[in-house]
């Protein structure tokens, strides 16, 4: 194996760390020196909100990343910085702008004890860092009050213990023993508004960080949807290999994970490093496809993945950086997003083509709720609710049209992705995007005519002919 730059310094720093570890750090087995010195690349940001558009790519030895994972911050809220499983293009974190994936990460929220995860990693022979999360060993849980009201089908400030217990049981986020231990339920003021707060037995929560044998390069896939499907299958396969139950949102390639932190006044945080092998991406992807009942063989990229430190930005990524749009599509639709996303009257368009989709007023009458989220299949409860709203662009250049869903599984979904789904499911025709009735009056009429004409032209982009992001 070729010795990477700074091999000796990486090993020296790791050996010093192992010899004098912090009190909350435990080692299970001895890590191979080549493993510690190999390089990984991933994006990070100072906060979750900053990661959406201002992520920074980092390349460092595995040993340095492992040491970073031992540095817990003490903070009231868990947002002490975030990291992704791979690099991002042009600083933007989304499923359309992921680059090279070096890490593979799981959140373990439904466990009885973190030692279960440690033993699972030992049995599988996988090298991992098992890190407690901010809410590990907490005895209270908050959920936004509006979600509780939606679940029970009525508004009000009251809550009974039986209601709260059944609500948390149906959410499926906690182990049955924790739900059964709920002893107090109340409406309380949380950090971001009203919540339902329950008191229960201590919960065990941790995060598993492992490393891929060969990086998975999204830019090696001709179809980004195919790459994202492959990544989702790999996450499922890796979780199955460890015997860990995960939430569907964990399969999102662009998912950002909070850096280690713990609340002030607590001392229950810990990191356990388990020595073992790297994760074979294609092996866990194949296992995930079996679980999904997918008859397809593991994906075969159009070209071999490129190792992260030597990767050059592909032409597609350069085009994204130049246009400022998340796109792999025809010129006309990129142009629409750039010129008219701030002028589109989405509520008016839906009222014209799918009036039954619109329900009650939202945003103080400025918008309308829609009957079902375009991505409702992601929700734990797939029935329609009032969690999604739309709002026209207004004559303020800073206020474009809005489509937003309040469910956690949709928090990173861009308005253009929601709009594309409305086109895909027939709620809006693609031609509505070029209809002067649904654009603010000062839009460029000549450009509208050009876009409308190009919508009618056959392309070699197949199903992506009308993609808008």
Molecular structure report:
There is one protein chain. The chain is an alpha+beta fold and 469 residues long. The chain has 3 domains: 7-136 and 204-315, no CATH class; 140-199, no CATH class; 325-464, no CATH class. The protein is 30% helix and 22% strand. It is built from 15 helices and 19 strands. The strands form 5 sheets. It has a 6-stranded mixed beta sheet, with helices on one face. A hairpin with a 4-residue loop joins strand 16 and strand 17. Residues 1-5, 302-333 and 455-469 have low confidence and may be disordered.
Would you count the extended β strands for me? 19
Strand order of the largest sheet: 1-15-8-12-7-6
Q: Provide mean pLDDT, rounded.
A: 81
Global Rg: 24 Å
Uncertain residue segments? 1-5, 302-333, 455-469
For the termini, the CA-CA separation is: 41 Å
Principal-axis shape: globular
Q: Number of domains in the coordinates?
A: 3
Helix content range: 25-40%
Largest sheet: 6 strands, mixed
Strand content: 15-25%
Instruction: Please identify the structural class as seen in this structure.
Output: alpha+beta
Number of helices: 15
